[in-house]
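Let us work through a complete example step by step.
Step 1: write down the sequence.
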Amino acid sequence: QVQLVESGGGLVQPGDSLTLSCAASGLSVGNRYMKWVRQAPGKGLEWVSTIYSDGRTTLYTNSVKGRFTISRDNAKNTLLLQMNNLKSDDTAVYYCETVDGRRGQGTQVTVSS
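Step 2: predict the structure and record it as tokens.
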């Protein structure tokens, strides 16, 4: 049974950093295409970042380029999202997602002064 558990969110101020984690069970995040998506209040799901199976190819939506970094910790079977210089527009529930659309329960990120 596949399970994804996101964590690491919180309330932070603009300019702060957070690292989100997505702990996986029932599948290996290593060598797997995975992505982060988010949903801001009152809005639909927005793609944030993708890491390809090779682990070297990564993509980011324009609004987070240069601030967010997606990676994997294969030893912990965990997908990561390092988020720096957070902005109020980053406020959302963040989900990790597999290629077939499986997601966890999400973790709330709130950026506010």
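Step 3: interpret the result. DSSP finds no helices and ten strands in the chain.
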